[in-house]
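User: For a benchmark we're assembling, each entry needs the component sequences followed by a predicted structure for the full assembly. Here are entry 17's components. Please fill in the structure.
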Amino acid sequence: MSILTKALSPALTRRGLLAAATVTAATAAFAPVAQASTQEAVDVAKLPRVKQVMVAPPFLPEHEQVAKDGPKVIEVTLTIEEKKMVIDDEGTELWALTFGGSVPGPMIVAHEGDYVEVTLQNLPSNIMEHNIDFHSATGALGGGALTHVLPGEQVVLRWKATKPGVFVYHCAPEGIMIPYHVVHGMNGAVMVLPRDGLKDAKGKPFAYDRAYFIGEQDFYVPRDEQGNFKKYDVAGENMSDALDVMRTLTPTHVVFNGAKGALTGDNALKAKAGETVLFIHAQANRDTRPHLIGGHGDNVWEGGSFNDVPATNLETWFIRGGSAGAMAYTFQQPGIYAYVNHNLIEAVMLGATAHVVVEGEWNDDLMMQVAKPGPIAAQG
Amino acid sequence: MLRTGISLALIALVAGVLNWGTGPQDRVELVPVILSGQSLRVAPFEVTVADWSACVAGGACEDIATSVDNPTTTPMTGVNWFDIAAYITWYNNAHGTSVRLPTAQEWRDFSRKPAPVARKPLFDDPRLAWAANYGQEETPRGPVRVQGSWPKTRDGIADLDGNVWEWTSSCAANDAGIDDPAHCPAMTVMGAHESVIPVFVRDPASGGCATGTPPTHVGFRLVEDQH
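Assistant: Structure for entry 17:
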C-alpha cells in the first residue's frame, strides 16, 4: 500500500484527517511543489462582493443569465437545520437534515470565474455535526474536509466556479453518516452559468424565461411491526432502523422537493405557452430519468456540463445519482403537464411527480380530438 | 334476535352513540333519510375496520385491513369494488338485510350539500376541458381519522366531507352506454369532490398522468331501501 493510499483512506473521517496530517508532516511526502497554474491568478480581495439571498426550491435566487460585469465574490449563507417534516399526504414524518430548512437545499447561482463564499452555520438547536461537499468546487473533498461544524459553529469556505454547469452539493460528514445525511434531505445544487450565458445545440445564445429547481429525494423510512411508518422524537433517533432500510436500496419514498405533492395542486409549477423553461434536476444519491408528459426535452445538458453541446428533442433523459442535469423546453400548448421520474412506479406510487400549469392558446395544428369517445364504428 | 338487536341499537342511537358489539353478528343501525320521492336508510358512518374484520372472520372478505389503533371507529379504506361486493353479500347473508351501496345521486341527495359554487375553471377553452378542473377541488389530505371527525348532516350522516371518499354503485362510464355494473371499468366515488376510480383500485394514488385531484382514501357506506 502506498503512503498516499494510507494517508487518504482514513482522511475520509475527521479524526483521520488529523492522522493524515501527522503522516504528512512526518514524512514530508506532500511538500508543496511549485506548479504553473492553468488558472489566472486573481486578487480576490479587489473583486466586488455581492450577497445572494437564498430562496427555497423550486425557485432560484435572482440572477443574470449573461454576466454584465467581471468576476465577483458571491456571498451566501447556508443555515443547517434539523427539522421534522411531513413527507407525504399520509402524514409520514421524517427528521430531515436540511441546508436552509428545505429539501433540497437552496440553489446557488454563479457565473464561471466567480468566487462563491459560503458561510455554513450549524444551528445550536441541532444535535449533529455537518459539513458540505460542493461537486462544483475543486479540492479538499469538495470543501467537505474544511467545513465540519458542530452545533453552534459556523465556517466560511470560498471556492472558485471554474466549471460551468449544474452540480450537486451535499453533506458528507464521515463514514455511514454520509449516505444517512444525504437520504435525510441534506443536498442541494449549484448552477454555474457561462459568463456569456447558455448556448443551444447550434451554438446560438440561449435564454430561458423561467427556471425551476427540481430536487429529487429518495427517503428510507422504517416501519413498525404492523407495517406503519415509525415516528421518532428527535433527529438521528431512527439511525439504526434507517440504516437497515437504506441497505435494501429500496426507498419508501421518491419525491420532488421534499414531499409527495410538493409540486402539484396549489404548488404546481407555472408557465405560459411560448415560454422557455429551464428545469434543473438534481439527485444526490440515486439514478433517475426525468420526463415531461406532453412535452419534450428541447435542449438537455444531461450530464450537467454547460461546456457540452446540449442533446435535443429527448423524450426522457438520464440523471446519474450524485449529479444534476438541466433541460430546457419551450411550451407549445396550454394545459397541465406532468414532470415525472419515468420509472412510473416511483412517479405514481412513491411520489416523484410534479405538475406544470401552462396558460395560453390551444393549437389545433399540434393536436386535436377529432372525435369524442363513443361507440366503436362499424368496420367496412 | 334481530328485533332485539334493532331496539338496542335504537336506544344507543338516541343516546348519541352507536351500539358496537363484539361479535360478527352485530350490525350497524341505519338512519332514515327522507329524500324527494324516496325513503332511504343510511349508515351514519362508513364501514369500519372492525366491521371488515368480522367479514374476514366470516371467511368472506380478504384480510386487507391495515392495523389501526381504534378498529371499531376507524373507517375501512383500501377497498376496491370487488372487495365491497364480497362484504355486502356477506353482510346481507349474516344479517338478513338488503344493504347496498348508494347511487351517486342518492349520495348527492343525502349529503344535502348545497350545489357546488361554480368556481372559475382553470381553462375556459372546451379543448382544455381535460385540464379545466385542475386544482379547483377541495381535497382533504392526511391519514384516515376516526369516524365523526368531520361534520354530519341534519339527518345525522357523518364524515361526508372527510378525507375518505366513498364508492357508489354508479358506473362512471354511463356516457358510453355501459350501465351494467358487472361490465363497468370505473365507478363514481363521492366525497369532498366527485371522482372516478377504476373498479380494481384500492388506493387512489396521485401522480403520473392523473391531472385531476384524486381522492385521498376510499372506503364505503351502506344504505338500505326503506320498506
